[in-house]
Design a protein that fits this description.
- The complex is a heterotrimer.
- By secondary structure, chain A is of the alpha+beta class.
- Helix content of chain A is 25%, strand content 36%.
- Chain A has a 6-stranded mixed sheet with strand order 6-7-8-3-9-10, with helices on both faces. Chain A has a 5-stranded mixed beta barrel with strand order 11-12-13-20-14.
- In chain A, helix 3 (110-123) packs across helix 4 (139-151).
- Helix content of chain B is 76%, strand content 0%.
- Chain B contains 12 helices and no strands.
- In chain B, helix 7 crosses helix 9 (171-200), helix 8 runs antiparallel to helix 9 (171-200) and helix 11 packs antiparallel against helix 12 (230-253).
- The longest helix of chain B has 34 residues, at 56-89.
- Chain B is globular, with a radius of gyration of 22 Å.
- In chain B, 51% of the residues are buried.
- In chain C, helix 1 crosses helix 12 and helix 3 packs across helix 9.
- Chain C has a domain at 51-108 and 155-279: MetI-like fold (Orthogonal Bundle), CATH 1.10.3720.10.
- Chain C is mainly α.
- Classes of the chains: A alpha+beta, B mainly alpha, C mainly alpha.
- The interface between B and C is large, with 89 and 79 residues.
Chain lengths: 363, 261, 280
């Protein structure tokens, strides 16, 4: 079943005074899709979400829901369901009063409202708590009321603005899976904003990584992880080691770069690498093999972190750079001087992205 | 050290007593039996209360004061609430300028406001009317309403309004179901401020009162300057009682007392 | 219409009624009064010249300024220790003391003044107690002089002085005083070098408020004062109600306003008055 509607942004841009919060952006979200906008604070993801909701008017461009231009419509006429960062639950209303709000605004008959409140609360597993005051609920329960309130109006699009930010880690993991289950059940088009890569990986059909007011890369979690277009996307999604160097050659999809103090590193070339000079080799921690001293890059183990199933090792290379690697805990930790190595096919050579304004702002 | 401390505490206690006790002197004065005020009274009676509540002039002025106060509160509350919400939506310089303009009647001496109002209201035939008095008092009460409502508006999370909007509620519905219930304490506080401002006010009332409409404070003022009759003490006690009742209402219904530091 | 334009329109519509009201019943009357004061037959600034040129009127202005100044000084001196004690009280005692400060705020100035008339009267309780104690052998003239005006005005204005000073005092971090103590400073030095400077903004705000309010006082000096020492506010009232010279009343009003706004502008450079005003 798919109760969702498609959403399209065409040339959407927004500036606040001299600050360009969102550069002209095109994005099509398919009906029923779960799309996550992932990025650091100030990257424009919340602005884009608020433009979809109708809370912020774009400086340029159009928003289409199910092919219909809604750019000039206020939020109340867009039939959207929004879940706010701190839930924005009405403090003077009960749980049921909050969930009923959108239905009353639509003038539904009382018996229908009562029935749908019951269904919505059952969906988020809050049956029987309808008469509770909002202040009497735990953070996790409040989060679910916010979700029920947004879903009960059967919105064309569900919009979620960092909805799990206020929950503790344990609860967050649980609710992530819960949201994924709910999405499978209701099948509504969902745009989800977060700065937490783990959330993005667990829930999304596609992820848009945002940076400096634009979508840097859009794709499935696997595409972004395995084939990031540059070092920013690579470092934002998953653990990564980046070896900076100068590009030597690109040949048949293979690239070689010279890492100062280390030597030549070879790997799979990202698109559009030709003609570039400043590049980086992306080495994922799980692709690094750590051996007792043999052939390979000589290195020294600096730190060992036991993670339960895995052990994380920090090793220092000859040029002084540290690299994190991970291996099964039961493999044990080699002692003394080691060498590290990797399959060239597992390494990606990427354009190096300049530090962003947002990165400078966040210490 | 201990001497200094007890000196300071003694002084502060004396100051606090100085603030409250003289006001309370009016109460026993109103229970005098004699036809002049003697403090403390040699004989107590309710004689002058009977006189007050049987005197048409006193009762009329009490009724006028009540009408003026209610009309004042109505005007100030309606205009002030809308203005406070409007101010909250503004940013930057304009907000500062308009806030300054709205609060200006608190800074301009009341006698100046009163003379200016009298000057324009007299030719309109509004002098000596309940409406004229209420207009004047509303000018003085408006800043209090704007401040009170403004304070409670700042406790209103703007995300709540966006949430209600997103759920399909019209602006009027958002106001009635979200904004109004949440700022209600501020509205009640503002209303009580406006009522008390009007009930207590004398200077504007001196200028704008006439034979047709004379407020209770003006009547008290006129009598005080002639004689020291216990009826004035009764009228004052009535005014204190009204104020304290409104004050109590504001404390129970209004914004919570600022918590102890 | 775009979302933004709609928002601006709503804001304008919300502000408009109150703006119109203030324009019609506050700004326009003041403007007309000003117009009147500068359009005298004898020349544009004749009323001002007449007020400032005459010995009698000049004395009224000087009297008013001097009265406001002395009342302010007394109020601040009494308010400072009172506000300090308020910051040291807890629980029930604090509530009681705080209500003692707030209660007079809500009672009409007229009634508060009337109460002092009862107390200071020739046959009033104060004179009688003194007579019975044998401290005096005939009643003192306590009413209708500078003393009674000062008592009445300090009584009305004292809460305006206590609250800003109290607000400044509760913001002082008490660890600073402990630190000064720990560094070997005597209590007097800690007070003069740490506490007083930190609470000075509250004192300045309090002094400005009390002084500005005192400048426009009418009821209390009219009832408690003698006939010889009148204030500008009383003069304005007399000019309008008894002598019917509106142009002089207008000129006196605007001289008073000019002094007040000059002082406010000056004070605004030292203390954030807006905050203190709203905190009330």
């Amino acid at each position: 079943m798919s109760a969702g509607r498609s959403v399209a942004f065409a040339g959407i841009a927004r500036s606040f005074g001299a600050v360009q919060a969102l550069r002209p952006t095109d994005l099509a979200v398919a009906a029923g899709e779960f799309l996550t906008l992932l990025g650091p604070s100030g990257s424009g993801k919340t602005t884009l979400l608020n433009i979809a909701a109708g809370y912020i008017a774009p400086s340029a461009g159009r928003v289409l829901i199910d092919g219909r231009d809604v750019t000039a419509l206020p939020a109340r006429q867009r039939n959207i369901g929004m879940v706010f960062q701190n839930y924005a639950l009405f403090p003077h209303l009960t749980v049921a009063g909050n969930v009923a709000y959108g239905l009353k605004a639509r003038g539904r008959p009382a018996d229908e409202i009562a029935r749908r409140i019951g269904d919505a609360l059952a969906l988020v597993q809050l049956d029987g708590l309808g008469e509770r005051a909002i202040s009497a609920l735990s953070g996790g329960q409040q989060q679910r009321v916010a979700l029920a309130r947004a879903l009960v109006i059967e919105p064309d699009v569900l919009l979620m603005d960092e909805p799990l930010g206020a929950l503790d880690r344990q609860l967050r993991k649980h609710v992530q899976l819960e949201i994924r289950r709910l999405h499978r059940e209701h099948g509504r088009t969902t745009i989800y904003v977060t700065h937490d890569q783990e959330e993005a990986l667990v829930m999304s059909d596609r992820i848009g990584v945002m940076r400096d007011g634009r979508i840097a890369q859009l794709g499935t979690a696997r595409e972004l992880y395995e084939n990031p277009i540059d070092s920013f996307v690579a470092s934002f999604l998953g653990e990564s080691n980046l070896l900076d160097g100068r590009l030597i050659s690109v040949n048949h999809g293979r690239a070689r770069l010279d890492v100062p103090g280390l030597g030549v590193v070879e790997g799979v070339a990202a698109d559009g690498l030709e003609g570039m000079s400043d590049v980086a080799a992306l080495v994922r921690p799980e692709d690094v093999a750590v051996e007792p001293a043999r052939g390979g890059w000589p290195a020294r183990i600096e730190e060992v972190v036991y993670l339960g199933d895995l052990t994380a090792l920090k090793v220092r290379l000859a040029n002084g750079q540290d690299i994190w690697c991970r291996r099964h805990a039961r493999l044990g930790v080699p002692a003394g001087a080691v060498t590290i190595g990797w399959e060239a096919a597992a390494i990606r050579i990427l354009p190096r992205s300049q530090p962003t304004k947002t990165e400078e702002r966040t210490p | 050290m201990i001497v200094t401390r007890s000196l300071i505490h003694g002084l502060a206690s004396a100051v606090l007593a100085f603030l409250v006790l003289p006001i309370l002197a009016v109460l026993p004065a109103s229970f005098n039996r004699a036809s002049f005020i003697r403090l403390p009274p040699t004989e107590y009676s309710l004689r002058w209360y009977e006189r007050f509540f049987q005197d048409r002039e006193w009762l009329t002025s009490l009724a006028t004061s009540t009408k003026v106060a209610l009309l004042t509160a109505l005007i100030a509350l309606a205009l002030g609430t809308a203005a406070a919400i409007g101010l909250e939506r503004l940013r930057g310089r304009l907000r500062g300028v308009l806030t300054g303009l709205f609060l200006a009647p608190m800074i301009v001496p009341v006698v100046v406001t009163a003379v200016a109002l009298y000057y324009v209201i007299r030719p309109m035939g509004l002098s000596g009317t309940v409406l004229g008095l209420a207009l004047g008092h509303a000018v003085l009460a408006l800043p209090f309403v704007i401040i009170n409502v403004g304070v409670s508006l700042r406790t209103l999370d703007p995300a709540l309004l966006r949430a209600a909007d997103g759920l399909g509620a019209s602006p009027a519905r958002v106001f009635l179901t979200i904004t109004l219930p949440i700022i209600l304490p501020g509205l009640i506080g503002g209303a009580v401020f406006a009522l008390i401002t009007s009930f207590d006010e004398l200077v504007v009332a001196i200028f704008l009162s006439g034979i047709q409409a004379k407020t209770l404070p003006v009547k008290i003022w006129e009598v005080i300057r002639l004689e020291f009759t216990p009826v004035v003490a009764v009228a004052s006690t009535v005014l204190i009682a009204i104020t304290v009742a409104l004050f109590g209402a504001a404390r129970t219904l209004g914004p919570r007392e600022r918590s102890r530091p | 219409m775009s979302l933004t334009a709609r928002g601006h329109l709503a804001t304008a519509l919300l502000l408009l009624p109150a703006l119109l009201f203030i324009a019609v019943w506050f700004v326009t009357p003041l403007a007309q009064l000003f117009q009147l004061s500068v359009s005298d037959k004898a020349g544009p600034f004749a009323p001002y010249a007449q007020l400032l040129g005459s010995e009698v009127y000049r004395r009224v202005f000087v009297n008013t300024l001097w009265l406001a100044l002395t009342v302010t000084a007394i109020s601040i001196l009494l308010a400072y220790p009172t506000a300090y004690v308020l910051t040291r009280l807890k629980g029930w005692w604090w509530t009681l003391a705080f209500y003692c400060v707030l209660f007079p705020f809500w009672i009409s100035v007229l009634i508060r003044t009337f109460a002092w008339m009862l107390l200071l009267e020739k046959n009033g309780p104060i004179n009688r107690v003194l007579l019975e104690l044998g401290a005096i052998d005939r009643p003192l003239e306590l009413l209708f002089n500078a003393g009674s005006v000062h008592i009445g005005m300090v009584h009305v204005l004292l809460p305006y002085a206590v609250l800003p000073i109290y607000a400044a005092m509760i913001r002082v971090d008490h660890r600073l005083l402990l630190a000064s103590d720990g560094l070997g400073a005597a209590p007097l030095m800690t007070f003069l070098r740490i506490y007083l400077p930190l609470t000075m903004p509250g004192v300045t705000a309090a002094a400005v408020f009390v002084f500005l309010l005192a400048l426009g006082f009418f009821i209390t000096p009219a009832l408690l004062g003698g006939v010889s020492a009148i204030t500008v506010a009383m003069l304005i009232e007399q000019l309008v109600n008894e002598r019917l010279v509106w142009s002089l009343a207008g000129a006196a009003s605007f001289i008073l306003l000019a002094v007040i706004f000059a002082l406010l502008a000056l004070a605004a450079r030292f203390v954030p008055l807006g905050q203190a005003l709203v905190a009330r």
